[in-house]
Amino acid sequence: MALLLCSCNKVFSASGGYRGGHAAAQSRPDRRTGLCRVGMGDSSKCRLIFILMVILKIIKHCKELSPALVTGQLLGLDVGSVLEVTNCFPFPIREEDEEVEAEGANYQLEMMRCLREVNVDNNTVGWYQSTLFGSFQTGELIETFMNYQENIRRCVCIIYDPSRANQGVLALKALKLSDTFMELYRTNNFKGEKLREKNLSFVDIFEEIPGCEACSLSPNRIKVSNSALISAFMTELEADTPVTQCDYDRLQLSTSPILERNVEFLIECMDDLSMEQQKFQFYYRNLSRQEAQKQAWLQKRRAENAARKNAGEEPLPEEDPTNPLFKPIPEPSRLDSFLITNQIANYCNQINGYSIKLLQVGLSLLVAGQSFSRLYLMKALHEK
Amino acid sequence: MGSSGQTVLQYVPSPASVSAKVHPLVIFNICDCYVRRPDQAERVIGTLLGSVLPDGTVDIRNSYAVPHNESSDQVALDIDYHQNMLTSHQKVNPKEAIVGWFSTGGVIGGSALIHEFYSREVNNPIHLTVDTEFRTGNASIKAFVSVGLSLGDQQLAAQFQEIPLDLRMVEAEQIGFDVLKPTIVDKLPNDLEGMEATMERLLALIDDVYKYVDDVVEGRIAPDNKIGRFLSDTVAALPKLSPNAFDKLVNDSLQDQLLLLYLSSITRTQLSLAEKLNTAAQIL
């Protein structure tokens, strides 16, 4: 048993993907260096403060209408370096219809107006959405981000995963798009060269505003705050039992259905990724074929020119823009492959998290099993 | 109808014992509205949304404040606002209907009028009061229904009668609540810390039980048969596996987990390799 563990550790360090120690079930931008990458530029340094009520509202809305995926709007204040989220309201589920678009906008305006009347902060600071097993990185998310970013200086997206509440985990993530990614998206330029220039890799698309310990050095943090009145009420609402439902869920060993679904999603994503890879391969093959053809044509031209020079005629130009050989082949955009890669990384991290948790419990069981049998024995002796 | 001699004021208790279940989110919402109320208002009034469960309990799930004007003898409620918010909320969740209304502060004269208004909207509305001024020294949340007082056959007045209230949280909310209880939380705890906390609590419980059994055996505490039976049931619930079988079981599952870990780490390596090949490498 011990031997098996050692060899696995070696594998982990070889892949560079795992540092022994804490393994958060939420994905982190860069696990290789163990640090969270903070976005460049001052506008991205921000602290996020939540009111407890907002989080409870989000949880309630996502859970009530699960498994349907829902969205809602976040309202709050953007002051200095602090982004405070003080209220939120849910969006009705939208059908894919043209006229319903206007209705949705009306609903939003109506809600904002009504909330204004009761002195709720009226500024949109972002939106939230629910997800299933962490599969939220889609093109639509990025589009929505860009839409919001145009109007609001700083906006944040909260992703909540209600399916993981069964495990006693609060699966809440706060995301922002990184600045470099936004620039590239605006110019719609995802060619290889540009990406190399900006040193952008797939982890850099989203910036997660972390709420975890390893990032206590970074200025980006999520804080939760409550007004004094609410804190007073909370003591009233505190459960009396020393052990809560949360604990029962955490100690549950049967996470296999969840792991199964995670691995299923992973496999599907891998299929998508391999399709994207094939596209790239196709492109590169075409490119190299075109190059070869160009070279051949160039040789012919040069030979022709040499012959012409001997005959004393004007040499022909070495380039011919009308020749289809010289038409540049468009490079496929890498945005999709980035998103898919991100998704896969997410699933991997989640699987990692569950597995490590189960490992911990299993190992402690093993140790406890031996001591428990001793306890059994002692009890028996006592009763005698 | 007069009756000779003494007239007895009767009140008919509600035939079915209604009780209410409130989601803490409602309480927080009310507190938030109270904190944000306009300066001249002393209290906040609003609508309660929810549903009636099949066993008669009223489940209060959501709420919103309604602007109102109050003077010594008049209460004016913004009915349009109330209707607008209701339709908006029902667009999101059509199952939520009006079940009553709330106010901060105690029950006062004006409450009867408002209650009457809400009785027109729904049958037997619940009136929830949240004492934000802590008059009794601790936070008190009470729920009332209106009960008729009749003298003989004449309906004289209505009385607010308190009904039992249940403040319980759905599991997912409980998790959020546990995590976010302190006034300012510096970070959302990750899995491992939560696990640690749970283990500690479990250990504390086991210690308690152990001490109890010890005390009973030594004769320090009078034994309680019910607890004893409960304990023996619990211990008997452990599956009786031989140590070898148990070890094998645990080892097998551990190996499965390690396999998955390996798989996911390899996938990650593959991803970074693929990315290098796609982006960082220069082909031509």
Automatic annotation (TrEMBL), chain A:
Gene Ontology CC entries for this record: eukaryotic 43S preinitiation complex; eukaryotic 48S preinitiation complex; eukaryotic translation initiation factor 3 complex
| Regions annotated as coiled coil | none
| Chief subcellular location | cytoplasm
* Keyword Protein biosynthesis belongs to the record: yes
For this protein, the record's CDD domains field holds:
MPN_eIF3h
State where the protein is found.
Answer: Cytoplasm
Organism domain of life: Eukaryota
The molecular function terms in GO held by this entry are: metallopeptidase activity; translation initiation factor activity
> Which InterPro entries does the protein's record reference?
eIF3h (IPR027524), eIF3h_C (IPR045810), JAMM/MPN+_dom (IPR000555), JAMM_MPN+_peptidase_M67A (IPR050242), MPN (IPR037518)
Supply the alphabetized keyword list: Cytoplasm, Initiation factor, Protein biosynthesis
PROSITE patterns referenced in this protein's UniProt entry, alphabetically: MPN
GO biological process assignments = formation of cytoplasmic translation initiation complex
Gene3D superfamilies under this entry?
A: Cytidine Deaminase, domain 2 (3.40.140.10)
Q: Which residues form the MPN domain?
A: 48-181
What is the purpose of this protein? Component of the eukaryotic translation initiation factor 3 (eIF-3) complex, which is involved in protein synthesis of a specialized repertoire of mRNAs and, together with other initiation factors, stimulates binding of mRNA and methionyl-tRNAi to the 40S ribosome. The eIF-3 complex specifically targets and initiates translation of a subset of mRNAs involved in cell proliferation.
| PANTHER family documented for this protein | EUKARYOTIC TRANSLATION INITIATION FACTOR 3 -RELATED
Which family is annotated? Belongs to the eIF-3 subunit H family.
Q: Any idea what this protein is called? A: Eukaryotic translation initiation factor 3 subunit H
Q: Which organism is it from?
A: Salvia splendens (Scarlet sage)
TrEMBL record, chain B:
Pfam families per the UniProt record, alphabetical? JAB, MitMem_reg
The molecular function terms in GO held by this entry are: metallopeptidase activity; translation initiation factor activity; translation initiation factor binding
Q: Where mainly found? A: cytoplasm
Locations listed in the record: Cytoplasm
GO biological process entries = formation of cytoplasmic translation initiation complex
Q: Does the keyword Transmembrane apply?
A: no
Q: Which PROSITE patterns match?
A: MPN
Q: What keywords tag this UniProt record?
A: Cytoplasm, Initiation factor, Protein biosynthesis
**What Gene3D superfamilies is this protein classified in?**
Cytidine Deaminase, domain 2
Q: Does the keyword Protein biosynthesis apply?
A: yes
InterPro entries (UniProt xref)? eIF3f (IPR027531), EIF3F/CSN6-like_C (IPR024969), JAMM/MPN+_dom (IPR000555), MPN (IPR037518)
- Superkingdom, taxonomy of origin: Eukaryota
Could you give one GO CC term from the UniProt record? Answer: eukaryotic 43S preinitiation complex
Assembly and interaction partners: Component of the eukaryotic translation initiation factor 3 (eIF-3) complex.
Write out the function statement from the record: Component of the eukaryotic translation initiation factor 3 (eIF-3) complex, which is involved in protein synthesis of a specialized repertoire of mRNAs and, together with other initiation factors, stimulates binding of mRNA and methionyl-tRNAi to the 40S ribosome. The eIF-3 complex specifically targets and initiates translation of a subset of mRNAs involved in cell proliferation.
Q: Give the family from UniProt.
A: Belongs to the eIF-3 subunit F family.
Name of the protein in question: Eukaryotic translation initiation factor 3 subunit F
Tell me what organism the protein belongs to: Salvia splendens
The top of its lineage is:
Eukaryota, Viridiplantae, Streptophyta, Embryophyta, Tracheophyta
